[in-house]
Amino acid sequence: MAGAASPAAGAGSVDSTAVLVERLIAEGRSVAVAESLTGGALLAELIRVPGASAVVRGGVVAYDTALKHSLLGVDAGLLAAAGPVDPAVASAMAEGVRAVAAVGGHPADWGVATTGVAGPDPQGAAPVGLVYVAVADAERTLVREHRFAGDRAAVRRQAVAAALALLADALDAFSAA
């Protein structure tokens, strides 16, 4: 993963995903993911870390645009007007997955979402490499736009790394607030 050392990385390297999961465990905060272009890779990256089951609730792969509405509650009018590759859609996905991953009536503390175009072809007006990642907690939502270069696999890897980085940034920013 870009931005995260692999489990086979050399001695002394920092596994940023493991650090992130360990921080969630230490804070007692849960996370759920809603993925489109990453197709489960974000969830896979989180759960590759031993102990992740203490904080990772699960995820929804809403690859089909209609599932963003039916499973995650993204407004159908927004999807019709903006399409699936839009910052408001990413935000709604992150907010929606918190509720979808509720356990005992309690939503996940964090929702993380990815939506974009991995290629090889553009999607409507959205070019290949355009990706939105979003992170939501109970009070606020952050979304970032990215324009990644590379082939389909590279765009997807970069999207996973960007989503994890945004979650780490949100943990820092929201904890300080």
List keywords for this structure.
40% helix, globular, 5 strands, five-stranded mixed β-sheet, 6 helices, 177 residues, alpha/beta
The helix-and-strand class reads alpha/beta
Low-confidence stretches: 1-11
The amount of beta strand, in percent, is 15-25%
Main sheet specs: 5 strands, mixed
**General form:** globular
Roughly what percent helix?
40-55%
Strands of the widest sheet, in order across it, are 2-1-3-4-5
Give the helices and strands as they follow along the chain.
HEHEHHHEEEH
* Beta strands, count: 5
- Averaging pLDDT over every residue, what do you get? 93
Distance between the termini: 30 Å
Number of helices: 6
Question: Mind telling me the C-alpha Rg?
Answer: 15 Å
Task: Compose a concise summary of this entry.
By secondary structure, this protein is an alpha/beta fold. The protein is 40% helix and 18% strand.
Structure, explained:
The protein has helices spanning 16-27, 41-47, 65-70, 76-82, 87-100, 152-176, and strands spanning 31-35, 56-61, 110-116, 130-136, 141-147. The protein is α/β, with parallel strands linked by helices. Strands 2-1-3-4-5 form a 5-stranded mixed beta sheet, with helices on both faces. β1, α2 (41-47) and β2 form a beta-alpha-beta unit. It is globular, with a radius of gyration of 15 Å. Mean pLDDT is 93; it is low at 1-11.
Blueprint of the fold:
Layout: H1 16-27, E1 31-35, H2 41-47, E2 56-61, H3 65-70, H4 76-82, H5 87-100, E3 110-116, E4 130-136, E5 141-147, H6 152-176
Parallel strand pairs: 1-2, 1-3
Antiparallel strand pairs: 3-4, 4-5
